[in-house]
Write a structure and sequence with these properties.
heterodimer; A: 490 residues; eleven-stranded mixed β-sheet; ten-stranded mixed β-sheet; 23 strands; B: 250 residues; Rossmann fold; six-stranded mixed β-sheet; four-stranded antiparallel β-sheet; globular; Fe-S cluster assembly protein SufB (chain A); Fe-S_cluster_assembly_SufBD (chain A)
Chain lengths: 490, 250
């Protein structure tokens, strides 16, 4: 049928590479010498004006890292990374440090405007209901360039600032909690991060406070050959609540770039943290050239009784994703939740999932994972649910669904379940399906194009997870998923 | 309206349609009857544009447009509607969401403005009431967990909302009890108009008591072997398809 052939040709001609944030910002940068050494770590620490204890912490991590091996158990493959061919610090030249947005390089402000992230509070306030405001910390390569609504949050007692500032201004809080969830020695990438982390956000919500607005950090990698080593620390003190969202993008480049972040969450008694990610790092081109290696350690500690930590992630970007946002359910009656949508297209590789570690009594966890593989991508869910001996009454529900689009991609589910307590109840459900030709034909018979039909079916598939995102981000995420899958049909 | 000339179709090297000729005029309700395996469902899929079929010869014209050169969604926008024998389930997609997406996609293809939400809801409510479709059914994911009767009513609801010019009903009576058959038939009859034609595919006379056809065609061995008025259906009901099977054997 000639018409069919025509469609196939059209679909083939669509560039898989629909990445809309791939531009570069021209701005004068200051960098550390290339490669990794004690001197480079001293350089970073000095740039941040850190106290001696912090430098020592980094150096200890570095020594440890030198003895460690890169993990190879994930279902991903990539050329060996030369850790001495990376710049570990790159920041726009800002001397002295800008005191207000007026002093920030206009090129950088333009960058965030282009990305749709307004940094001027007046602009954010225009036309937005007070309860819908979002405070933003904007991290550009290795530094935070602006944090909005800091003053207003301070009035509520909420601390929201770049972590490098928090190390100077709130050393006791940082010392108490940094590395308490993800120890310096945790894993190869986390240890590397501990040695060279440059910026990220610090959040502290005092007892009984409900954070008056959504907090968010927007990570942008701009400079070539630079790694981004973000470090985020969020502490919700007793009875407090915070919802936090991060977003990430990077320019299109033929070389791979490393993003090795560590995020630690601590929820004390009766506290709740909702952490949402919309990850849209550059995924590389259709042949698999370029893209971000997203090797990230994210872990939350439900340290207090009745505490709740919820991870929600929409992962559409990165050439390789290695990421397992986890919950340690230490406090009795604490709850951990993980909602994930991982979309892979082109040559992307995703190995992602979660760990729910039940330590306390009557702890509950819930895992809903939706993997969508298209193109020639590989998409793996890897998850651990474990109950400690003392975790009487622990309960978990896991649902992992995979959807395949086309016949050149792969979806894999690797669940690990360990229970040392006879009263623990773990449920696991998993399905793998393909968008059937009959479903496509049905939708097309009603007038939807191939692309529209795919988007509709995929949106139905991920609905349970999208519902977990704050409203405005859910709409964004839905669009992002459609864009990521453009050109995937054929 | 619809003209099919010398249509030859195969699937995986198996010939299903063998030089089929059929004309359906504007305002006409044409019934196609025939034994299992005579190619009735294939005919409906080929008209609607399902990809698995290889058209070796012939043409299908809708108001002079060559349907075989169009994608399924383009045919839909041109006015072709197929009420499926087995409607598909679309998990997670609310029926209302689906209806709106379909209506707007067709409007877009025809260069019309999208429907406003109040206008859309008004149209759905009116059509749903006629088909005795309760509101909560519209809130559920499309066809997921629907009974056979609910699925068929949903098909007719879509037909009523999309306002196609050429409607194919593929075994719409299968799996329906008497009440559901009545509701569905009334829904179809309400859509009969001088500008719209129907192709009603069925095994049984039963449906044709409710949706009375203007013409009846008997399909066998991938072609139309006999055509007549509505009385032909009654004759078939009395005698079965044995005559046609014997003629094949001879």
């Amino acid at each position: 049928m000639p018409a069919v052939q025509e469609t196939i040709d059209q679909v083939r001609s669509i560039d898989v590479d629909q990445y809309k944030y791939g531009f570069e910002t021209e701005v004068e940068m200051e960098k550390s010498p290339k490669g990794l050494s004690e001197d480079v770590i001293r350089f970073i620490s000095a740039k941040k004006g850190e106290p001696e204890w912090m430098l020592q912490w980094r150096l200890d991590a570095y020594k440890r890292w030198l003895t460690m091996k890169e993990p190879n158990w994930a279902r991903v493959s990539y050329d060996k990374i030369d850790y001495n061919d990376i710049y570990y610090y790159a920041a726009p030249k800002m001397n002295p440090a800008p005191k207000s947005l007026d002093e920030v390089d206009p090129e950088i402000l333009k960058t965030y405007e282009k990305l749709g992230i307004p940094l001027r509070e007046q602009e954010i306030l225009a036309g937005v209901e007070p309860q819908n405001r979002v405070a933003v910390d904007a991290v550009f390569d290795s530094v935070s360039v602006a944090t909005t609504f800091k003053e207003e949050l301070k009035k509520a007692g909420v601390i929201f600032m770049p972590i490098s500032e928090a190390i100077r201004e709130y050393p006791d809080l940082v010392k108490q909690y940094l590395g308490s969830v993800v120890p310096v020695t945790d894993n190869f990438f986390a240890t590397l991060n501990s040695a060279v982390f440059t910026d990220g956000s610090f959040v502290y919500i005092p007892p009984g406070v409900r954070c008056p607005m959504e907090l968010s950090t927007y990570f942008r990698i701009n400079e070539k050959n630079t790694g981004q080593f973000e470090r985020t620390l969020i502490i919700a003190d007793k009875g407090s609540y915070v919802s936090y969202l991060e977003g990430c993008t990077a320019p299109k480049r033929d070389e791979n770039q490393l993003h090795a972040a560590v995020v630690e969450l601590i929820a004390l008694d009766d506290a709740e943290i909702k952490y949402s990610t919309v990850q849209n790092w550059y995924p590389g081109d259709a042949e698999g050239r370029g893209g971000i290696y997203n090797f990230v350690t994210k872990r939350g500690d439900c340290r207090g009784k009745n505490s709740v930590i919820t991870w929600t992630q929409v992962e559409t970007g990165s050439a390789i994703t290695w990421k397992y946002p986890s919950c340690i359910l230490r406090g009795d009656n604490s709850r951990g939740e993980f909602y994930s949508i991982a979309v892979s297209n082109g040559m992307q590789q995703v190995d992602s999932g979660t760990k729910m570690i039940h330590l306390g009594k009557n702890t509950t966890s819930r895992i809903i994972s939706k993997g969508i593989a298209a193109g020639k991508s590989e998409n793996t869910y890897r998850g651990l649910v474990s109950a400690h001996r003392k975790a009487t009454g622990a309960r978990n529900f896991t649902n992992c669904d995979s959807l395949l689009i086309g016949n050149q991609c792969g979806a894999h589910t690797v669940p690990y379940i360990e229970s040392k307590n006879a009263t623990a109840v773990f449920e696991h459900e998993a399905t793998t399906s393909k968008i059937s030709e009959d479903q496509m034909f049905y939708c097309q018979q009603r007038g939807l194009s191939e692309e529209e039909a795919t988007a509709l079916i995929v949106n139905g598939f991920v609905k349970d997870v999208l519902q977990q995102l704050p409203m405005e981000f859910a709409v964004e995420a839905q669009k992002l998923i459609s864009i990521s899958l453009e050109g995937s049909v054929g | 309206m619809l003209e099919i000339k010398n249509l030859v179709v195969q699937i995986e090297d198996k010939r299903i349609l063998n030089g089929l000729n059929l004309t359906v005029n504007k305002g006409e309700v044409a019934a196609i009857m025939g034994p299992n395996g005579s190619g009735k469902s294939t005919l409906s899929y080929v008209i609607a544009g399902k990809e698995d079929y290889e058209v070796l010869d012939g043409e299908i014209l809708l108001d002079g447009q060559n349907l075989l050169e169009m994608e399924a969604d383009q045919r839909a926008a041109a006015g072709v509607f197929l009420a499926f024998q087995y409607p598909l389930e679309i998990p997670g997609v609310g029926s209302m969401t689906f209806l709106k997406a379909a209506m707007n996609a067709q409007r877009k293809a025809r260069g019309e403005d999208e429907l406003t939400t109040p206008e859309f809801i008004k149209q759905v409510n009116a059509a749903a009431a006629q088909l005795e479709i309760p509101k909560d059914m519209l809130k559920r994911a499309l066809n997921v967990g629907f009974s056979g009767g609910e699925k068929k009513r949903m098909e007719i609801l879509q037909m009523a909302l999309l306002q196609p010019s050429f409607c194919i009903l593929d075994e719409t009576d299968s799996g329906l009890d008497i009440d559901a058959l009545r509701i569905v038939s009334e829904g179809v009859n309400a859509l009969r108009s001088p500008d719209r034609a129907f192709l009603v595919i069925t095994h049984y006379q039963r449906l044709l008591n409710h949706i009375v056809p203007d013409t009846v065609h008997v399909m066998h061995g991938g072609r139309i072997v006999r055509s007549g008025g509505k009385e032909l259906a009654l004759e078939l009901e009395a005698n079965g398809y044995a005559d046609y099977r014997e003629s094949e054997a001879a």
